[in-house]
Amino acid sequence: MNGAAIAELKQRISKLSELPTLPQVVQTVVAKIAQPSTSAEDLARVLERDQVLAAKVLRLANSPFYGFPSRIASVDHAVVVLGLNVVKGLTLCASALDIIQEAGMHQLWRHSLGVAMTSQIIARRLGLKNPEDVFVAGLLHDLGKVVLYLKAPEIWNQVEALSKANRTYMLDTEQTILDFTHAEVAGWLADAWHLPVVLREPMLFHHQPAAAQTARVQTAIVHVADLLVKAMGCGQSGDDL
Asked: Under a CB-based contact definition with an 8 Å cutoff, are residues 144 and 182 in contact?
């Protein structure tokens, strides 16, 4: 693509016309949890309006990852035992899973889930107040790659091919070809979804954590988790450097 076409693509994506949108119910969940007066019952009522999302939250709440001794059978129960922030994370995770599955990027999903779990472990070791926020940030950190793949597959394929041929980081290849990176696209996505800074900064700065201004520790955690998961060979984020 020539320079004018690249500039047009950047403008299109950054102006949100080419970004995936969050389902209305997920937007409502995120907004509700931002309100201090929201109760578990209030949130459960919102989730129950969307049977598919409610089923996903229940399935995730009953997964071995959380390990509750008895089955969680209602959305109310899930919200009470998991907490508001965890449920927010689950709804965002369910949306991210849909987007990545639509793209067929299953190895990227494995990588992202590995980063999420590793981030949460590190956050707990450090005693962070809401380690589930770091889990969500880890899961969402590479969504910019999914947007590029879905909206500009020919460019994404070119970036991938050149990175492999030249043994260079995809981030550097993106900057050379596009003059912007998947991390910037993730930042635009976070803005479009009105995500809090504790999620936005790790998504935008996971390759340059020193640039974070507010969520500095969370961003550094996702950065380290990303490197560890790559080193362990869990999934595939696009390059193996």
From this structure: yes
What's the rounded Cα separation, in Å, for the pair 158 and 207? 21
What is the distance between the alpha carbons of residues 47 and 56, in angstroms, rounded to a whole number?
A: 10
Beta strands, E only, the chain? none
Separation between Cα atoms, residue 232 and residue 114, nearest integer Å = 10
pLDDT digits (tens, 9 = 90+) for 146-197: 999 988 888 888 998 999 899 999 999 999 988 899 999 999 999 888 888 9
The two structure tokens encoding residue 110: 């494995």
What's the burial of 5, exposed, middle or buried (CB within 10 Å: 0-12/13-18/19+)? exposed
Q: Are 174 and 158 in contact (CB under 8 A)?
A: no
Q: For residues 181 and 206, is the Cβ–Cβ distance under 8 A?
A: no
Q: Residue 29 is which amino acid?
A: V
Gap between the Cα atoms of 132 and 227, Å rounded: 20
Check residue 98 and give left, alpha or beta (phi > 0: left; psi -120 to 50: alpha): alpha
Say what the pLDDT of residue 89 is. Answer: 83
**What is the dihedral sign for C-alpha 190, 8, 106, 207?**
negative
Mean pLDDT of 6-17: 73
> Considering the entire predicted model, what is its pTM?
0.83
